Amino acid sequence: MEAMVQRKQMMGTVGIEQIRRAAVAGLFYASDVHTLAADVQHLLDNVPATADRGVPKALIVPHAGYLYSGPVAAHAYARLRGARSSAIRRVVLIGPAHRAYVRGIALPDVDLFETPLGRVALDAEAIHELAQLPGIMFDDAAHAAEHALEVQLPFLQTVLEDFTLVPMAVGEASGDDVAAALECVWGDDETLVVVSSDLSHYHPYRDARAIDARTVAHIVAGTRDLEDPEACGATSINGLIRCARSQRLAAKLLDCRNSGDTAGERSRVVGYAAFAFEPRGETEGFRA
């Protein structure tokens, strides 16, 4: 905490809240607050009701424009609709750094993230703890234009009540690095972990379906690390799977489609999948 105060003193921003403004509102999702709220609610309402009643500990969700991946992401966030009065008070949000080179894992040096639906405060204490780990640094440039984390916020703002945010952008890092970061802020029922990742990129429709089916099987089985061509958030997924294994959580596929299914043409598609991680039974989950 002292280091954060010292940085603000050097910048002359003590007492001034630093805000990470929305970068892709109007591009990946609507910039008008009423339109955005209606769009997110429509996506959630179109998810069929299920018998699942428990609140997942972790989610994997895609991060394209809502027209393309929103229907898939909604299958994950719909699992939190009953969580408005639950214990969730913090969201650890992690995904790939698309817009800036990051050697390690980047934290933002701001107080708030903003979308058209409002502002979300960052968990300063958790971020301070993370900053003590090797390979984790503050880098606002990694977050300034990054869409992978931002597009998750309107969904979270809709299905949760008050929560704080711990955002991490992953660059040149390992699954072990991500696992160490997640373990640092894993918490209990008050903490939800959200990993942002798309699947394969720019294959013909039939090829993408086959590639993504194999990737989904690997995530559910947790038998090996994913590679970047399989998922742009492969490193984050690999770290989550390590934590899930130690916490005896099982990955459950909620939806898997691609842009050719939702809104795009089929010659070059991007794959999307949504998963929930929940306590596993005696016969399910990751194999050793």
Give the gist of this structure.
With 288 residues, the chain is an alpha/beta fold. Helices cover 35% and strands 22% of the residues. The longest helix is centred in the C-terminal third of the chain and has 17 residues, at 205-221.
Indicate the overall shape: globular
In the CATH classification, which architecture applies?
3-Layer(aba) Sandwich
**Number of strand segments:** 12
Q: Give the full name of the CATH homologous superfamily.
A: LigB-like
- Calculate the terminal CA-CA distance, rounded to whole Å: 39 Å
Count of alpha and pi helical runs: 11
Low-pLDDT runs: none
CATH class call: Alpha Beta
Enter the CATH topology name.
Protocatechuate 4,5-dioxygenase, Chain B
Radius of gyration: 18 Å
Give a short account of the largest sheet: 9 strands, mixed
Series of H and E elements: HEHEHEEEEHEHHHEHEEHHEHE
Helix content: 25-40%
**What number of domains?**
1
The overall pLDDT, averaged over residues, is 92
Please provide a written account of the structure:
The strands form two sheets. Strands 2, 3, 4, 7, 8, 9, 10, 11 and 12 form a nine-stranded mixed β-sheet that branches. 35% of the residues lie in helices and 22% in strands. With 288 residues, the chain is an alpha/beta fold. The chain has helices at residues 2-11, 33-45, 66-77, 124-130, 140-144, 147-150, 153-159, 175-184, 205-221, 234-246, 259-262, and strands at residues 19-20, 58-61, 90-96, 105-107, 112-115, 118-121, 136-138, 164-170, 191-196, 201-203, 249-258, 269-279. α8 packs across α10. It has one domain (18-279): LigB-like (Protocatechuate 4,5-dioxygenase, Chain B, 3-Layer(aba) Sandwich), CATH 3.40.830.
